[in-house]
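Sequence in, structure out. Go.
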Amino acid sequence: MSTDFQFQEWLTAHSERTEQALDRLLDSAKTTPHRLHEAMRYAAQGGGKRIRPLLVYASGQLGDNQGEALIESLDTAAVAIECIHAYSLVHDDLPCMDDDELRRGRPTVHKAFDEATALLVGDALQTRAFEILANANCDAQVRLKMIAVLAAASGSRGMAGGQAIDLESVGKKLDLPGLKQMHAMKTGALLSCAVELGGIAANLDPAQMMNLDHYSKSLGLAFQIVDDVLDATADSQTLGKTAGKDAAANKPTYVTLMGLDYAKKQAKELQETAIASLDSFGAQAQALKDLASLVVNRGK
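Output:
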């Protein structure tokens, strides 16, 4: 990557690439059952920052081989992880979870359709993610590794486990290590997985993957801290979802536990740590560095 890298151009191009890949790899609403596929597209294509697919593409461009096969692998990985993320949001918004009516500036899936359909949308998006990876046009060992890391990041020791801790912690006081663990699982696991998927597709060596792991762990925690800050300070129009939900539900957050100023300072320090982890990659990692800045500075 050249030193005159233009992040906004990269961001626009790869955001468009994500949308095109989603449109291509999701079933058409004309496919039976029509209502379910329409709702799946509503959930997955309804806007959003697309941070996880962008991280896949950014880490995937760190390798030496940037051929057509890699491009296809990155597309499938990007769509797969966005399907998992979309499913998690659909289920998170259900009345039995966070009971929210607004997501990405429009009605949540169970409001736009119904609760049973929303449940099935989440189930179907999750299984579609693994179907997409299983059919990726790449080496079989690469496919298996991508499937394994996405499954681990999504399951009981990752995102789903973090959600369980979150629900169990309502009305309780978590200490800082407990809060960090919850965030690392609930939010950080999928963000780290996105970075890892790109590295796997690009066939990076163990030392490079270790540097990416340091980057993604710092980024994942920073992402959730900024979410906590925005939930406490931004309005619903800015967030695209109901503001103040965590406080209303008496959930532990960085803001409630450590205060707003500490949370902001911690997010900034984590951003700097994440960026420093990429020094060995040189200019090739500029997209990852800029994405870290984007994550921490969103809402400003």
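Check: The chain has a mean pLDDT of 92. The chain has one domain: 7-292.
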